[in-house]
Amino acid sequence: MIELVRPTVDLADSWWEMVDEFAGETIHGSSYRSGDREHLRGRAVFQEWVDWLGRMERADEALPEGRVPSSNRWIVRDGRVVGTIAVRHALTPSLLLEGGHIGYAVAPGARRQGVAGAALGLALGVAASRGIDPVLITCDAGNTASARTIRSGGGVLEDERDGVLRHWVRTGAPARPIDEGTLDTRDARLVPICAEEAAAMLSGERRRDWAPGYPRQDDLDAVRTLPATGPDAWSPRHIVRRHDGLVVGSVGCLGPPREGVAEIGYGLVPQARGSGLMTDVLSGMVRSIEAAGVRVGAHTDPGNVASHRVLARLGFRRVMGRADAGTADAAWLWTRRSGADRVGPA
Question: 91, 171, 200, 253: which one has the fewest Cβ atoms less than 10 Å from its Cβ?
Fold first, then answer.
């Protein structure tokens, strides 16, 4: 029987037996490096280390630069540690390219016995409990066994980058109801725009982390609606692209919900379009809005075919035009049935 167990000093002897099996090979998902061996040999220091691995699950734990909150587990079979696995709660730009949400390793003597597949299935459950959906799992392009395990667990290959295969797996995790905090999606962070940033945008200021062309006129119109009391769940947000940290657009609602419906507004600078980013952003926003018990609507220009495609992909349907096509204020209204089929990784 395969279990995922929180690191514990009670399994120290079995842990070191597993480490010896790797014979200096990198143990992915362990937070252990070969140079740590002598330092961790003492029982008291080992206890401090496993305690720290446990605290990495806490969002308020101070972590070294480049680290993210993680659920660290040891893969245990019949009471013996046979591998390690870590579920990372967020992605940095480097993890988006290589590393992903889940890193794991199985000791040489336990490979090709279904251990990795069973552990990965359990780890996806951990990710779902953390609200992570979808999950990114990567492996080297030449590691056919790992790629097969990921595909068997539901992984869908997105691409290969610098010799790394990048797969996405849906966990079915419930979305977090939208609030005034930052919302994370696969490819972006949706960061509420504060009053100081809104003032800078409206004054024509340029900032280093704003992509060329940002803010657009629509972004400026959006921040003019910012509540005097500061950002709330419905106010505009920067779309911060993960892979380079640039603000490439904005997304938000046109005020609080009316009669249980929130109207969403969104847009990207030209250089960020056509990559699937807006599908990813809107998928995250819509799921969070619906998790708060609110339906979502949108208006589009009749000629905005790209926006029509994104909305249709997310389960929206056109229900009416606000005015006849060809008039100055023509617009199409789109609504989405709550709980409609959601798009997979885009």
Answer: 200
DSSP state of 333: E
Nearest to 287 by CA among 192, 159, 190, 218: 190
Q: Which domains does the chain have, with CATH numbers?
A: 2-169 (3.40.630.30), 183-336 (3.40.630.30)
Predicted pLDDT of residue 320 = 67
13-43 in b/e burial notation, b at 16+ Cβ within 10 A? eebeebbebbeeeebbbbbbeeeeeeebeee
| 297 neighbors 261 (Cβ within 8 angstroms) | yes
CB atoms within 10 A of CB 59: 8
Give the integer Cα–Cα distance in Å for 120 and 94: 22
DSSP string, 53-92: HHHTTSTTS---TT---EEEEEEEETTEEEEEEEEESS--
pLDDT number for residue 65: 85
Report d(CA 184, CA 242) in Å as an integer.
10
pLDDT of residue 293 exceeding 90 = yes
Q: How far apart are CA 213 and CA 206, in angstroms?
A: 10
**Cβ atoms of 318 and 332 closer than 8 Å:** yes
3-state secondary structure of 334: strand
Report how far Cα 314 is from the mean position of its chain's Cα atoms: 18
Closest CA to 315 of 288, 336, 334, 291: 336
H-run or E-run covering 221 = helix 217-223
Q: Is 5 helix (H, G, I), strand (E, B) or coil?
A: strand
**What's the angle, vertex CA 184, arms to CA 299 and CA 277, rounded to 5?**
55
Q: How far apart are CA 111 and CA 132, in angstroms?
A: 27
Kindly state the percentage of the chain with pLDDT values over 90.
64
Q: Given a cut of 60, is residue 217 above it in pLDDT? A: yes
Structure tokens at 159: 């691409």
Cis check for the bond before 177: say yes or no (omega within 30 of 0).
no
Between 81-85, 186-190, 200-204, 265-269, the lowest mean confidence (pLDDT) is in: 186-190
